[in-house]
Amino acid sequence: MQAVGYYIALPFLYLISILPFPILYLLSDFAYVIVYYVVGYRKSVVRTNLKNSFPEKSTAELIKIEKAFFQYIVDFFLEMLKCLTISKEALLKRVSIENPEVVEELFKNGQSCIVSTGHYGNHEWVNQVLPFMLPFQIKTIYRVQHNAYFNQMFLDFRSKYGVEMISMNDASRKVNTKGDKPFLLILANDQSAPPDKAYWTNFLNQETSFFAGTEIFAHRFNVPVVYVCIKRIARGKYRAVFDMISTTPRELPKGKIIEEHAKKLERDIKADPSPWMWSHKRWKYQKVNGQYIDLNYRE
């Protein structure tokens, strides 16, 4: 059944992907009306997340954010499909880096780097275009999709310009410091982490679980950790902004890197809430017996 669904959907996905951008966004405007007003995709999840994250905001303010999010999420989905056929030239016109010198200086010193980010802005386009913009070997950790055919489709377009994709299950074995040149490892750390694997901190007015992988890799390899915000500067245009967390992670107490990541991501979400994935069930886990989970690093 997985193959049947994939091969039925594939021609339509490619048809959308080859649309010129003006027509793509006209389609998005139409789809937004269907998704928001007719289907109501995860609207209750979005409303709960927004209400708990911004208790100081009025109902009218929350609805305004909610609508802006749904407009963005439809844009993002169609932009993601555009990855199937988008050219290097088109990516370079639509994605920029504000301060590449933050990580380029590390490369000059022969240092690899971990980039901590969230599902904020079009991370798919940034992932594709980075090999053209930075000298590192780009590595990205991803979560395997349930449908093997769609999973392979995502892997193909994410890696077609040179990014090395590493599944979460293989990360501990495949991420290493060996290679012809320093690597830049990208980890998105804003999904709900199971309680037994979580570091807990206050994030958007709630006790929130975070995966510890970013910090574990930083301690293991003792490489700098940089946060990146992918700002939406216009419809279909994004700018990545780097923000150093630490150049000496082993000198930091446990949890500090994750705390800094959470603070920076929260800052960016508060500045512009619309391009964050409010439809994710971000807070589906709670603390175990009201206690924090201790991190046990394996050096």
From TrEMBL:
<keyword id="KW-0012">Acyltransferase</keyword>
<dbReference type="Pfam" id="PF03279">
    <property type="entry name" value="Lip_A_acyltrans"/>
</dbReference>
<keyword id="KW-0808">Transferase</keyword>
<feature type="transmembrane region" description="Helical">
    <location>
        <begin position="12"/>
        <end position="39"/>
    </location>
</feature>
<keyword id="KW-1133">Transmembrane helix</keyword>
<dbReference type="GO" id="GO:0016746">
    <property type="term" value="F:acyltransferase activity"/>
</dbReference>
<protein>
    <submittedName>
        <fullName>Lysophospholipid acyltransferase family protein</fullName>
    </submittedName>
</protein>
<keyword id="KW-0997">Cell inner membrane</keyword>
<keyword id="KW-0472">Membrane</keyword>
<keyword id="KW-1003">Cell membrane</keyword>
<keyword id="KW-0812">Transmembrane</keyword>
<dbReference type="InterPro" id="IPR004960">
    <property type="entry name" value="LipA_acyltrans"/>
</dbReference>
